[in-house]
Specification:
alpha+beta, five-stranded antiparallel sheet, three-stranded antiparallel sheet, 5 helices, 26% strand, GNAT_dom, N-acetyltransferase, Acyl_CoA_acyltransferase, GNAT family N-acetyltransferase
Length: 175
Amino acid sequence: MTFLPVLPVLTTARLTLRGPEPRDFPVLRAFYASDRSSFVGGPKSPEGAWRQLATEIGHWALRGYGRWIVTERETGHTVGMVGLWNPEGWPEPEVAWDLFEGFEGKGYATEAARAARDHAYGALGWPTAISLVNRANTASARVAERLGAVYEGEVTHETYGSIGVYRHPAPEACR
């Protein structure tokens, strides 16, 4: 028997954001096996990808929020993971996104991250949010900037090293 918490489902014009489930393992295994995951701790072995899936599900149970699996509403294809992230050692709560191979350049990260941030500011009452972006990940920096986030400086993380901090606009500015 699998225990999964009941998680909010968000929808946008093109996307559905739903909680991670064991059925997502094959797509996560493929993502974490690829170089595409290099900015988020990959590549990882299948065991490492499974542990990441468990972490994603567990984050929801421990924090009451987390990252959603993002699917195209029209096709049902899984395009990535986007959501709210704040594990131990993080400087503060983050709006985070990872897109899977073949789904970049369509505005999906921006669309899903905006929905996640709206949820954080609305339902969860967050007063602020950041996004952490590796300096070499220019595509991710552009997503942060499209969301109105402003580069604030660098933090040093024990696993990821020096990471850029992008501060999102306050909730009032996003309405």
